[in-house]
Amino acid sequence: MTAIAIIGAGAFGTALAVTLAQQGPVILWARDLRDMARDRENRARLPGVPLPTSLSLTQDLADLSAASIVLVALPMQQLGAFLARNATHLDGRSLVACSKGVDLASGKGPSALLAQACPGATVAVLTGPSFAADIARGLPTALTLACADPVAGPALQAQLSTPALRLYRSTDLTGAELGGAVKNVIAIAAGMVMGAGLGDSARAALMTRGYAEMLRLAVHLGARPETLAGLSGLGDLVLTCTSDLSRNFRFGRALGAGSAPEEGATVEGVATARAITALARNRGIDMPITTMVAAVVGGELTVADAMTALMARPLKEE
Ligand SMILES: NC(=O)C1=CN([C@@H]2O[C@H](COP(=O)(O)OP(=O)(O)OC[C@H]3O[C@@H](n4cnc5c(N)ncnc54)[C@H](O)[C@@H]3O)[C@@H](O)[C@H]2O)C=CC1
Ligand SMILES: O=C(CO)COP(=O)(O)O
């Protein structure tokens, strides 16, 4: 019996599938397998990583019926529509949300979308600092597995950990997924700073103040501060704001440098900046960097004007 299934054969879904297949059978669902089955490699999203024989591929969601754990690794803005069509295939299992972001249509994170569409499921969140390419190469990685259920949480932690992938357990789903959502927005801002040539000192200031607004939003929405200080918040913020491997960082850097961003890359921080700006405005939470990123990606502000506006804010206590 296949115990673990993964939905979404992007870079992250494929990397998780390759890693978890070292421990037992895994089934990976893609809406379009293209040449993956023939090549035994996901050349489009995770080139150079062979797919092990314990990993099977399918385009038919009915093939996932034997899996007790389903990891959902779709881009955030695709998740709601996918669930509207396919929730009956997923209900009643342990569903692990792997997307990072906030849904523009509903203002919800991935775990809330899963719980709403699949009321009989046990929902968890897997998040933290990890590039798909690192996981797939078996490099050491530590992530947060958040699940409110006191029995399912430890079981999932054990089943999804490997010698190279170390999962820390939490019951704070709100904090875990808001850290992963906001860090992408701040990474775009960090990229803008570096692309515009404003320097490492400016980036450190922006990361720190970005962390402050991540914490402010998450605590307001019921998260525990220590969650944000962990892998899913600070850990992922540091990784994403400082690495060329980050698509959000590279996107921001292109904007800052006045060059064209890469085509076809999943850059979750773009829509999430807009979703969180709306959420923060409705709740009266001050999130100046997120609001600035939303305005720049929406074409309402230039990077230079956004930086000037941030520096001109009234002086305040830290
Ligand atoms: N790539 C990474 O290093 C990491 C990614 N993530 C998160 O994982 C999520 C997925 O990202 P990636 O795998 O990197 O994206 P990706 O850009 O590599 O792949 C996205 C995949 O989703 C598929 N897809 C898009 N819409 C779909 C739909 N409606 N139905 C079925 N399949 C659909 C595409 O065909 C593509 O294969 C994002 O939320 C991202 O933030 C989290 C941690 C690390
Ligand atoms: O979430 C990630 C690292 O933890 C991947 O970051 P990007 O989506 O910016 O590439």
Automatic annotation (TrEMBL):
InterPro entries: 6-PGluconate_DH-like_C_sf (IPR008927), 6PGD_dom2 (IPR013328), G3P_DH_NAD-dep (IPR006168), G3P_DH_NAD-dep_C (IPR006109), G3P_DH_NAD-dep_N (IPR011128), NAD(P)-bd_dom_sf (IPR036291). The lineage of its organism: Bacteria, Pseudomonadati, Pseudomonadota, Alphaproteobacteria, Rhodobacterales. This is Glycerol-3-phosphate dehydrogenase [NAD(P)+]. NADPH binds at residues 12, 31, 100, 132, 247, 268. It comes from Plastorhodobacter daqingensis. Belongs to the NAD-dependent glycerol-3-phosphate dehydrogenase family. Residues 4-150 form the Glycerol-3-phosphate dehydrogenase NAD-dependent N-terminal domain. GO terms for molecular function: glycerol-3-phosphate dehydrogenase [NAD(P)+] activity. The gene is gpsA. Catalyzes the reduction of the glycolytic intermediate dihydroxyacetone phosphate (DHAP) to sn-glycerol 3-phosphate (G3P), the key precursor for phospholipid synthesis. Residues 172-307 form the Glycerol-3-phosphate dehydrogenase NAD-dependent C-terminal domain.
